[in-house]
Design a protein that fits this description.
437 residues, alpha+beta, UDP-n-acetylglucosamine1-carboxyvinyl-transferase, Chain, 4-stranded mixed β-sheet, globular
Amino acid sequence: MDIFRIEGPVKLNGSISVNGSKNATLPIMAAAILAPGVSTISNAPDLADISVCIKLLSELGCKIERTDNNAIRIDASVIDNPVGDYEIVRKMRASICILGPLLARCRKAAVSMPGGCSIGLRPVDIHLRGLQQLGAKIKLENGYIIAEAPQGLIGTEIFLGGPFGSTVLGTANVLMAATLAKGKTVIESAACEPEVSDLANFLNKMGAKISGIGSPRLVIEGVKQLHPANHSVIPDRIEAGTFMTAAAITAGTLHLCNCRLEDMMAVVDKLRSIGVDVAAADDGCVVSRTGPLKPADITTQPYPGFPTDLQAQFMALLALAEGNSIIVEKVFPDRYMHVAELNRMAANLRKEGSTILICGAEKLMGAPVMASDLRASAALVVAALAAEGLTIVHRVYHIDRGYEKIEHRLNQVGAKIYRENDSETSKSLLPALAAND
């Protein structure tokens, strides 16, 4: 199992290109199975989660080719096995996105309950309720969701709001299924995230009739069939936000290419209030900091609010702010497994329910830490860049799910990150850490 050895502190300076969005690519790949033929998805990142999705679609019957220029060709001419197997689905929560399109095209599907990061309870009941309202018959059997619609799906009005706001993957699932339903479907309280809009735009390229894109009210006029399409995925706003925090915590300057600030206004506003300069550029933005970090209050919310996927990275950043900060997690209230690990690095964090109280520390110290999920991994890397001494990040397979070759890209702008095998590192770990004392 790989680990990261990270030496700090460093100052990042240079240019990084932001990759295509993981959270947009995965449901778009699932949508490709709605239409027989070959669809091409470009600007797709090379990630562990994308590889899992490729394997999942291959098991359904698709023929998939990854090209040298970050494109994925999906031939969905044949779907002869509408089953999402447990051994694949358990590795990635977004696997649930095949349920809607399989049900629409094949009129039946069996998909294992999904796995993914350990960030708290994330039920799929809203997905299932939406599909049932479209006319699907659904039952749970031996850990699988069994869905059938022998006569096809029928359009209707559906409310997708939940206790913590709208559901991104639930909206994607119901939206994809509704494109081939008979009649009109109206989705109220639809997720407004840019990744959902990107999916809807791809579906319209395939011949779907979707209006209200980007709003909480989506209207879908069902069509009899869809056709393959080509589509370029939007930039990854979460990857961009992670690099922004890396520039800020190291008091460096990063030019982020392929970055859409219009998708990140809540993040940009918070960075500026903290004392970080974010300036628009023709091909992205420039992020820099010269003064001290200021404290802030952050509450995560569904888009266009502050994204839960950047909560951990901003916690690492605010750990070095001059004063007291507060973070309230309203999307996944239990998404705080990184708190204990950041405290191991001399952060001063205290959990009170779904709230974290942050007392800014004078400095962070390198330490052995354990990554618990994808975004927590990123937060530990961000913190390690500014920490004094050596940080060992274990279980970096989490970060490989959402950041393509992050160590190489950060090293090109001044980081000192080394990927090693855990067994090789353990022999020399204690002497190396002793040097931090």
